[in-house]
Amino acid sequence: xxxxxxxxxxxxxxxxTLITVNSSQNYLINGPGEITGFGQLVVGGTGPLTIGxxxxxxxxxxxxxxxxxxxxxxxxxxxxxxxxxxxxTNGTVNYNYANSSDANSDPMYNGFAGSGTVNFNDGTxxxxxxxxxxxxxxxxxxxxxxxxxxxxxxxxxIGDPLGYGSTIYATNAGTGSQLWxxxxxxxxxxxxxxxxxxxxxx
Length: 202
What we know:
The chain is mainly β. 0% of the residues lie in helices and 46% in strands. It has no helices and 19 strands.
């Protein structure tokens, strides 16, 4: 079951004040259009919602207790939301990109809040970069670096882009994977557990 309080739409874009997905079924939002405007996306239920297009609505996203939001379909680098994703306890957000070249970067367009779980998985080793200026001081959940992901935390010396008090696991890191912390003057406050065969840089 999903519903939308739609203000306006055209053949490509939907402008809504609220979109709710609450179902045991799988849902996919994909195509050339986008969700735009000042609305909010709320994900609930046991069935995952997968987003394969680029969206820029400003009201943020809520992933409720037990729900799953997949960003990316695993076959490309498209699939995003903007603003803050509130990940409730037992909620899960999966970044599932498959960039064609490890020289490319898959940018994130959102920050985090809450205490749920965020998984990053890039099957070909491309970098997933947090957005500059988006600081996740209200996130204290769990981050898992999976596959061959290079996760770039670009805080820009204004705060911690991966949350204050979060726990980061890279315990099955493949060759080429890494956690890239890019603050030069501020302390990080996460718990970090690393093992595997990933790349240890300077």
